[in-house]
Amino acid sequence: MLSIKNWDNKTWISSTKYIQSFNNFLLKQKKLTKHSKILDIGCGRGKIMGSLSSKLKLMNKPIGIDIENHKDFDKRITFKKINAIRYLKNNKNKFDLILIKQTIHFFNLRDVKKILRYSNASLEVGGVILILTLDTKNNEIPTFFLMKQKLNQSLKRDNLIWKKLLQLNIKKSITKFNFKVNIKKNIYLKMIKQRYISTLLKFSPLQISNGINEINLRYKKNILFNDKLKCLIFTKV
Ligand SMILES: C[S@@+](CC[C@H](N)C(=O)[O-])C[C@H]1O[C@@H](n2cnc3c(N)ncnc32)[C@H](O)[C@@H]1O
User: Fold this and answer.
1) 95-101 and 38-41 as β-strands: parallel, antiparallel, unpaired?
2) What is the count of structural domains for the chain?
3) What span, in angstroms and rounded, lies between the C-alpha atoms of 45 and 233?
4) Does residue 217 lie within any of the structural domains?
5) Burial class (CB in 10 A: 0-12, 13-18, 19+), 78
6) Domain annotation covers residue 23
7) What is the pLDDT of residue 81?
8) Does pTM top 0.85 for this prediction?
9) Which residue segment(s) compose the domain that 95 sits in?
10) Does residue 59 sit within a domain?
11) Any domain includes 53
C-alpha cells in the first residue's frame, strides 16, 4: 500500500496557528479536562494531540495510532504503529474522545463500519467520536487539472462513506471546521512534490512535475484559500 508520509511534515496542517485553531474547535465540541482520555486514529505525527495534551495538562498521554512509522512523532503522545482496526479490535481502554481526522477515506465501507462499531465500544458514556473529512461540496484545495480529477473521484467516495455514517444508529450531529490558509507558492509546490495528500500518491514523477508547472502558472506568489472540513460527531449515550 502507498503510504502518506508528508501530510503534516512542515505544512499548514502542522503550523501552530492551525493546531491551536483546531484544538479550540475540538474543545467547543467536547468538554475535556486533565483527566480526559483521548485516542487519535490515523494521527500522523500526533502534533494536534501533543499540543492538546500540553494545553489541558492531561494526566494520561493521548494515544495516537498510525500505520506509518513516524520516527519524529510528538513525544507528548503515546504513539503506536498499528492498523486502526487491529488496535480497536483488541483495545480494552475507554476514551472520552476518539478523533478520526482526514483518515476515514483510507478504509473500505465494511471497515468503516467496523471502525465505528469498535470505536463506539471503546467510548466512555458521554464520550464522542469526531470524524472529519474534506468538505466535498465547496472544496478549495489548490490543484492541477489531473489532481482535481482524482480529488473529485475521491470526494465522491467520501460522500458514500458519509451517507453510510449518517445511517448509523448512534446519536450524531454535524458541524464544520474552516481554516484560512495563506501559503507561499514555493512551499505549496514543495508539498505537491512530496505528495502531501493521498490524491497524489499514485501519480508518476512526470505527472507531478507537469502539475507543479501548471500550479506555478495558475497561482500568484501567495496562495490563499479555505481549508474546509466537515465533521460528524457521534455521542455515546
Ligand atoms: C491525511 S493523514 C491525517 C493525519 C492527521 N489525522 C491529521 O489530520 O493531521 C491520514 C493518516 O491516516 C493514516 N492511516 C491510513 N490508513 C490507516 C490505518 N489502516 N490505520 C491507521 N492509520 C492509517 C496514514 O498513515 C496517515 O498518517
Assistant:
1) parallel
2) 1
3) 23
4) no
5) middle
6) yes
7) 97
8) yes
9) 12-182+226-235
10) yes
11) yes
